[in-house]
Amino acid sequence: MISAARPSTILLALTVGCGADPASEGEGSSSSPSTAGDATDDPSLGTGPNTTATSSPGTTTEVDSSGGPSTTDDGSTGAPPPMCTGDDECRPGTHCDLATGTCRCDPGVAQCLGELPAGHWVELDGTAMQDVFPPEGTVPGSRAAIVLAWSGGVYDRDRHRMVVWGGGHGDYSGNEVYAFDLEALAWSRLNDPSLDVGGDEASGYYPDGLPRSRHTYDYVVYVPELGAMCSAGGAGLWMSGQINVANFDCFDFDTLQWSSRAPTPEGSIGGIADYDPVAGRVAYVAGPGIRYLTDYDVAADVWTTHGDNFTNGGLGYGLTGRVHPGARLFVGVGASAIYTWDLDVPGGVVESTVALADAPPGFDRANPGLDYDASLDRLVWWGGGTSLWSLDLDGMTWVEHPAAPESTVVPPEPVANGTFGRFRYAIADDVFVLVNQTDQNVFARRL
């Protein structure tokens, strides 16, 4: 086993506080992956409710939105962070920046992500996503299933926040989107759920024209050219869970509206997708029975299939997939397997199987945490515990990055149905961020 720690350029006299015991699993249960059907209609998408919920100490505040973009203090646009006129309106550990009217992490009284020492985990107190849920009973199903029901998320690098979207099947009908601001250290509900959750399930949309709630697995991806989170197909739709769709729907973070682009060649349970920043494309493998690479040219709004391999068996439901830009590979990891697809080879591109030495404990977990660390230039895996592990594809070995001896915070165990895209590298702070359950705090670790 190789153990490594990245040198830190931060010299701090800080103590990271002990984290609380992980919370128990939230409300509700989640259903099993289901049999696929075919996609049909592709209607124009409607606009959703214009209400944004933001978390503050001990309360959930509903703030009426104009529907247009707001501008943050760094010039980016998106959903408004918590507004304030004084420190008493901000959650503990943050203060009110009067120049911008926003709550910001206060390094004088709190552990801010940008100052986290190397090798340390931190639990961000008071950051449970459930604090900004719509009222119970607003729509059918268990709100905890937004995470528990095979659901993922993305890192919105332009607004420096984690975004979570999920539910579906018989678990949760709500299609609202949630964002965790990594500067304000607070959750927002970016829109409200569609109230009419009937309609034609095979279309992939509710009667109001918005995408149906679904198991999002690992096929949601942030596309910077669009400033949007996009869903490459859909599976486990509310409520039968028996239908897949090929719709490519994108949620614009400036307008808070959904729109539809060119559909994927195929929708499937357990698809994996990630953005390739070198080519400006989305890499996509549609699921366990479809092993070839598909990519989406964002500028041209065109999908290209690199193969027609429908018949040679499946890869299973257990993968999390990320692009390694330097190696020019799309890499799927999970359930004791590693597969790669070459991003630069024209024509048919089917997976290659990779075996790395010294696999970490928990390598057999399905749908682990996985993301590309731009500073390290490696993919980094988390499957439970305090260590992170990077994939050295040159040395063909796993490399352990243990927590610092003085780090006392232990992250919760991954949920049984998978972590997917709720473990992400936040490049602005050079930290990994974990959203594990809706009733647990957000955790972060610097490598």
How would you explain this protein's 3D organization?
With 447 residues, the chain is an all-beta fold. It has one domain (38-445): Kelch-type beta propeller (Neuraminidase, 6 Propeller). It is built from one helix and 31 strands. The chain has one helix at 145-148; strands at 2-3, 51-56, 59-64, 70-71, 77-78, 94-97, 102-105, 121-124, 152-156, 161-165, 178-181, 186-189, 220-223, 228-234, 245-252, 257-261, 272-276, 281-285, 293-297, 302-306, 320-324, 329-334, 337-342, 352-353, 369-373, 378-382, 388-392, 397-401, 423-426, 431-434, 442-445. It has a six-stranded antiparallel beta sheet, with no helix packed on it. A hairpin with a 7-residue loop joins strand 30 (431-434) and strand 31. The radius of gyration is 21 Å and the shape is globular. The chain starts with a strand and ends with a strand. The model is unreliable at 5-29, 31-51 and 56-79 (pLDDT under 50).
CATH topology title: Neuraminidase
Compute the number of structural domains: 1
Mean pLDDT score: 84
State the CATH superfamily name: Kelch-type beta propeller
List keywords for this structure.
five-stranded mixed β-sheet, Neuraminidase, mainly beta, 447 residues, six-stranded antiparallel β-sheet, 32% strand
Secondary-structure topology with pairs:
Layout: E1 2-3, E2 51-56, E3 59-64, E4 70-71, E5 77-78, E6 94-97, E7 102-105, E8 121-124, H1 145-148, E9 152-156, E10 161-165, E11 178-181, E12 186-189, E13 220-223, E14 228-234, E15 245-252, E16 257-261, E17 272-276, E18 281-285, E19 293-297, E20 302-306, E21 320-324, E22 329-334, E23 337-342, E24 352-353, E25 369-373, E26 378-382, E27 388-392, E28 397-401, E29 423-426, E30 431-434, E31 442-445
Parallel strand pairs: 1-28
Antiparallel strand pairs: 2-3, 2-12, 4-5, 6-7, 8-31, 9-10, 10-11, 11-12, 13-14, 14-15, 15-16, 17-18, 18-19, 19-20, 21-22, 22-23, 23-24, 25-26, 26-27, 27-28, 29-30, 30-31
